[in-house]
Amino acid sequence: MNQDYIKPDNWSIIEEGFDRESVKSSESLFSIGNGAMGQRANFEENYSGETFQGSYIAGIYYPDKTKVGWWKNGYPKYFAKVLNAPNWIGINIEINGEDFDLNTCIEVKNFRRELNMKEGWYHRSFQATLKNGTEVEVEIRRFLSLDLDEVGVINYEITPLNKDAKIIYKPYIDAGVTNEDANWEEKFWEPLDVKKSGNEAFVTAQTFKTHFKVTTFMQNTIYAKGEKQNLSPTSVDTIADKILFYYDVIVAKGEKSGIQKIGGYTVSLNHTDTISAAENVIQKALAKGYNQLLQDQIDAWAKIWEMSDITIDGDVKAQQGIRFNIFQLNQTYLGKDSRLNIGPKGFTGEKYGGSTYWDTEAYCIPFYMATKDQQVARNLLTYRYNQLDKAIENAEVNLGFKNGAALYPMVTMNGEECHNEWEITHEEIHRNGAIAFAIYNYHRFTGDYSYIPEKGLEVLIGIARFWHQRASFSKNKNQYMILGVTGPNEYENNINNNFYTNYIAKWCIDYAYEQIQKVSLEYPSDHKRIMEKVKLSETELQEWNKVAGNMYFPKSEEMGIYLQQDGFLDKELVPVKDLDRSQRPINQKWSWDRVLRSPYIKQADVLQCFYFFEDHFSKDELERNFDFYESFTVHESSLSPCVHSIQAALLDKMDMAYAFYLRTSRLDLDDYNKEVEEGCHITSMAGTWMSIVEGFGGMRVKNDALHFSPKIPKEWGGYSFKINFRNQILKIAVDHKETKLSLEGNKELTVYVNGTPVLVQPKN
Q1: Residue 655: its pLDDT value, please?
Q2: For the chain, N or C: smaller number of CB within 10 Å?
Q3: Rounded distance, CA 641 to CA 329, Å?
């Protein structure tokens, strides 16, 4: 834990007291989003202190030129990144002739901000004394509408406390923005048009290179004494990429005035005429009005929470943590558009480029399958199917593979590889396996096989072809090997025979072969269509099986463990508990050379294999491998604590499971890795959900049935969650005495609890 200023609360994230040192962290933690766009918790008014400005639009990206010091064949030409979008929230304020800026105020007191997760809004309030002596009370509420997902709403109110005040509200929209992480300090937006009409304004700009066109809009309404004022701007400043309105208001001491600002984006991804679309959406928002928009927001979030909430009794920090994770996941992706995916930082920051990683398939799909309609998870699978041609091109052009072998990118926006580190881009190839596993996992959980003959089998064949060609035969060992890779543990590069990579490669080939046979028997027309398209021969299938049937897996017979890779036991095996705390985190304190030579593990690697393929191994095997590898794991990846929590719970190491749960659920709230100001760890938040449902709840799908083996941390009085299993909603409630099951559906469901079948009848 590196910070402890967030107040414990069951439903809200709360900060009290103005601390300049925590502004950037809070900008991440109090971020809002609605699946189509997102906004860091930047102040609306000008702030001259340290800040990280960030507004983001789903699907809008830029191919920033890769910045490396040398040239390598196959190196990605660019690093795609989510763009800092034009600023729609800006409302500069002038009070009695002085610019209002919390960084320069004489005093700021009673500062409080709240992210209300239950209702989906962000609120900020405080009292401030300006250098000119004027004291004001300020209250702001902001939300991004779930129903009108191109619309954001701000209600900004000011009350002079010690004297009358002339307040000038200066709302603006500005496309002259840059990214914090721009490689070449270049601008990404080309201004096209600025337009105003009454209290409405529109700035249209497009991205260089990718030519996404975005109209940023605003509509402003001034209020005083609780009533709408029919004011037009007293003046307007316009430049090529920015427009600013001035509204002059005289406010008596003790009276409240305010501005309601509707803003947001219309984009060429969805509209031919973005300006007309912006005008239309403004009218829809105005027709509803602020109060109705807020009520619609509350109602929409109530519907989300009805299905996705997890309750925890007796542990407020644990409860706050899981709800924060669930809230951010729903702010980031709602499954409406199969062109979109889930970036590791979502809409909270720019790190990792906002692109798609293997996190989606390995961690996020289980959450979306179980808490939403199965079509949402199917959309995530469709995203990868739609990019299969580019995965084939990536393997062929960058790596020299042939015959339709597909290597999905480590990082992508549109299917092209756009990561900027060689050892990740072309060595961390295990991500191919996660994509195949997600297809298997989707069928296992939903029972919907139709995706495989329709789309998934082509993906499986491309992936199997890659693994077949990537393996090489060792005459020395008389087995197939996979050399020169990086496993999930990115603290080792260019190693040979990473156990997880070899294992999932074999599994992918076996699974693809099984599905080809199944589709041939049960979906002959699809089989014929696919085989004609991919030109897969029986001879090639036999070659696949030869590789899969003779894959090498490094192992220590003496210790009874699988080796993370060849030579792992040759390292200086000093466990983490004996590592000086001053050396942590090692990725910030050590040279990369020292990290690579150390035994320290960034995240689950061998244990990732045990997580995916738990039923392939005995519990004793898991325990031996868990005890060995966890002792060398520094958990400096956000994806690490959740897997370890699940496995610790399975092994009845409940204190450890609970500690890992707290770490994953409060990773950002408590800033464990000293980096929350860069944004929140969105994809790992799905792992937090898994640590309760699969860890403490013990949920598994076996033989087409739900199984639970519930356990409960001693710190909790009880917990509950819901699962949408094959269009029936099952609620599981666990306390220290019993497990209760209830069902919302139209037919009975047999569920296994600790191996015993339980017939659950639907509620009347």
Answers
A1: 98
A2: C
A3: 18
Dihedral over Cα of 43, 145, 681, 427: its sign: negative
Is 603 annotated to bind a ligand? Reply is yes
Residue 216 has pLDDT above 60, yes or no: yes
How far is 435 from 393, CA to CA, in rounded Å? 17
Residues 6+ apart with CB under 8 A from 44: 89, 90, 91, 140, 142, 154, 156
Task: Of 636, 668, 684, 637, give the one whose Cα is nearest residue 28.
Answer: 668
Side-chain half-sphere of 248: how many Cα atoms within 13 Å? Answer: 6
- Mean pLDDT for the stretch of residues 603-609: 98
The pLDDT of residue 72: 65
Cα separation of 34 and 170, whole Å? 26
**Burial tier of 750 (Cβ tally within 10 Å: 0-12, 13-18, 19+):** exposed
pLDDT, position 71: 57
Q: Report, as an integer, the average pLDDT of 211-237.
A: 95
Residue 284 in marked binding region: no
Structure tokens at 664: 């994953």
pLDDT for 558:
96
Region 6-308: CATH code: 2.70.98.40
Cβ neighbors of 276 (< 8 A, separation 6 or more) are none
What distance in Å separates the CA atoms of residue 251 and residue 261, rounded to the nearest whole number? Answer: 19
| DSSP assignment of 510-556 | HHHHHHHHHHHHH-HHHHHHHHHHHT--HHHHHHHHHHHTTB---EE
Give whole-number Cα distances, 158 to 165, 169, 170, in Å. Answer: 10, 10, 14
Q: Has this prediction a pTM greater than 0.85?
A: yes
Question: Which element (helix H / strand E) includes 677?
Answer: none
Name the nearest CA neighbour of 205 among 261, 243, 153.
243
Is it the case that residue 449 has pLDDT exceeding 90?
Answer: yes
Residue 3 pLDDT grade (very low, low, confident, very high; cuts 50, 70, 90)? confident
573-592: b (≥16 Cβ within 10 Å) or e? eeebeeeeeeebebbeebee
Pick the closest to residue 167 from 254, 253, 92, 95 (CA basis): 95
| 658, 442, 361, 552 alpha-carbon torsion, rounded to 10° | 90
For the record, the structure tokens of 104 come out as 């320069």
Q: Return the active site residues.
A: 490
Domain residue ranges in the chain: 6-308
- The burial class, CB within 10 Å (0-12 / 13-18 / 19+), for 75 is middle
CA max distance for the chain: 89
Structure tokens that stand for 341 in this block? 């995916």
* 592 annotated binding-site participant: no
Cβ–Cβ < 8 Å for 371, 77: no
Q: CA 203 → CA 176, 191, 194, 213, distances in Å?
A: 10, 8, 5, 11
